[in-house]
């Protein structure tokens, strides 16, 4: 009996050792990127060691690693950035998500889509090679309002569809946030409707943002308690006073200027003699963005692709460049493309690069903290510890 117990013990012990050994063999050794600059989403760490594996980030700092334990990559002259996000696009098909992630844009914030299209794209949201997809789905607009001109039937706010019902329908169908499209050249929602939309969105814990093109409309929707603007104002006569800026700052709204689309629009109108006098000059638009930034209003990077033939990939780096031309320091532009977006949209799956965070990042050949044009250089895209592009 005694002998049997003894044998049983050793059989178990042998099995446990074998299993532990197999598990150890299966585990990928961690990767160390040595001597690399890291922008973690909020601050810069210069020439540090960055250690990670598929389970997350292990270490960011100056400590010298023990030799022989890691796959070592040379990080000299390179910069690690957290997942970039394009805060204003319209996703046409799932391939757009792939195009975005191939340059390090880990999520696209869709700002108007039909419920059906959103439903077909949403299943890709967690696929390895695709960027995450977030969408407002249909924007809130009245009959004849902005968004109704594209020949696609969409629900509109009217006698038989209240603002609150419209919001609940969108959320029920999966909308991540609520978008209002308030455009003065078309039919518009009234103040009571705007407030009712924002209130209902907030009741369900959703962010509510609005399309505007004039300062006047921006001030109206801000008065109705929206959380963000999907464009900065760009129409003639739109120049914020100190008082406007104070109201904007105190309201806590964020602004996605979409300088890319405004620049292209003004260029197109000018070239085709379509009445450029109806718009601000590009210099004035850049000045308005600078004043918002200086006032402390969160600025978010977004392009409004695919409007005016913009792509979902490197156009985003043009937008970052335009934000530097508006006068934002490089580190602030990097925040505009990352942490300002995570915070404004309360995106739980995105955060600063730190110990135990997912190892999802861009490894860029260059230093955008010194030269924003470096954003266009060669890059490696790592997602959950795997190099995917
Ligand atoms: Zn748009």
Q: Your description of this structure?
A:
The chain has 389 residues and is an alpha/beta fold. The chain has helices spanning 2-26, 94-101, 115-121, 163-172, 191-203, 215-223, 242-251, 259-271, 282-295, 315-325, 330-336, 339-344; strands spanning 31-39, 44-53, 56-61, 71-74, 78-81, 84-89, 105-110, 132-135, 178-181, 208-211, 228-229, 254-255, 361-365, 379-383, 386-387. The strands form 3 sheets. Strands 1, 2, 3, 4, 5, 13, 14 and 15 form an 8-stranded mixed β-sheet that branches. Strand 6, helix 2 (94-101) and strand 7 form a beta-alpha-beta unit. It starts with a helix and ends with a strand. The model is unreliable at 18-25 (pLDDT under 50).
What structural class do you assign from the helix and strand content? alpha/beta
Order of helices and strands: HEEEEEEHEHEHEHEHEHEHHHHHEEE
> Hetero groups bound?
zinc ion
Number of helical runs? 12
Q: How big a fraction of the residues is strand?
A: 15-25%
* Total strand segments: 15
Topology (SSEs and partners):
Blueprint: H1 2-26, E1 31-39, E2 44-53, E3 56-61, E4 71-74, E5 78-81, E6 84-89, H2 94-101, E7 105-110, H3 115-121, E8 132-135, H4 163-172, E9 178-181, H5 191-203, E10 208-211, H6 215-223, E11 228-229, H7 242-251, E12 254-255, H8 259-271, H9 282-295, H10 315-325, H11 330-336, H12 339-344, E13 361-365, E14 379-383, E15 386-387
Helix pairs in contact: 4-5, 10-11
């Amino acid at each position: 009996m005694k002998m049997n117990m003894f044998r049983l013990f050793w059989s178990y012990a042998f099995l446990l050792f074998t299993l532990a050994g197999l598990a150890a063999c299966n585990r990928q050794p961690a990767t160390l990127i040595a001597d690399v600059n890291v922008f973690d989403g909020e601050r810069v760490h210069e020439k540090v060691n960055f250690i990670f594996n598929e389970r997350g980030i292990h270490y960011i700092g100056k400590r010298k690693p023990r030799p022989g334990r890691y796959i070592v990559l040379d990080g000299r002259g390179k910069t690690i950035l957290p997942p970039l996000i394009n805060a204003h696009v319209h996703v046409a098909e799932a391939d757009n998500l792939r195009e975005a992630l191939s340059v390090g844009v880990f999520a696209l914030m869709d700002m108007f889509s039909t419920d059906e299209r959103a439903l077909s794209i949403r299943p890709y949201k967690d696929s390895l090679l695709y960027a995450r997809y977030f969408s407002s789905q249909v924007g809130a607009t009245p009959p004849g309002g902005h968004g109704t001109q594209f020949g696609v039937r969409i629900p509109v706010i009217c006698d038989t569809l209240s603002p609150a019902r419209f919001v609940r329908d969108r959320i029920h169908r999966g909308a991540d946030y609520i978008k209002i499209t308030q455009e003065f050249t078309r039919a518009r929602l009234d103040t009571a409707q705007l407030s009712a939309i924002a209130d209902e969105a907030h009741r369900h814990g959703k962010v509510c943002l609005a399309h505007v093109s004039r300062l006047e409309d921006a001030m109206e929707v801000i008065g109705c308690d929206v959380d963000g603007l999907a464009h900065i104002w760009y129409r003639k006569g739109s120049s914020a006073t100190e008082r406007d800026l104070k109201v904007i700052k105190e309201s806590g709204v964020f602004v996605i200027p979409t300088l890319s689309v405004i620049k292209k629009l003004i260029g197109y109108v000018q070239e085709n003699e379509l009445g450029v006098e109806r718009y601000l000059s590009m210099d004035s638009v850049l000045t308005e963005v600078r004043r918002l930034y200086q006032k402390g209003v969160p600025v978010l990077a977004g392009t409004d692709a695919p409007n005016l033939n913009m792509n979902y990939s490197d156009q985003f780096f043009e937008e970052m460049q335009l934000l530097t031309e508006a006068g934002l320091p490089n580190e602030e532009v990097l925040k505009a493309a990352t942490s300002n977006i995570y915070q404004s949209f309360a995106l739980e799956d995105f955060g600063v690069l730190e110990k135990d965070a997912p190892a999802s990042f861009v490894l860029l050949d260059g230093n955008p903290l010194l030269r924003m044009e470096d954003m266009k250089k060669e890059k490696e895209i790592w997602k959950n510890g795997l190099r995917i592009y």
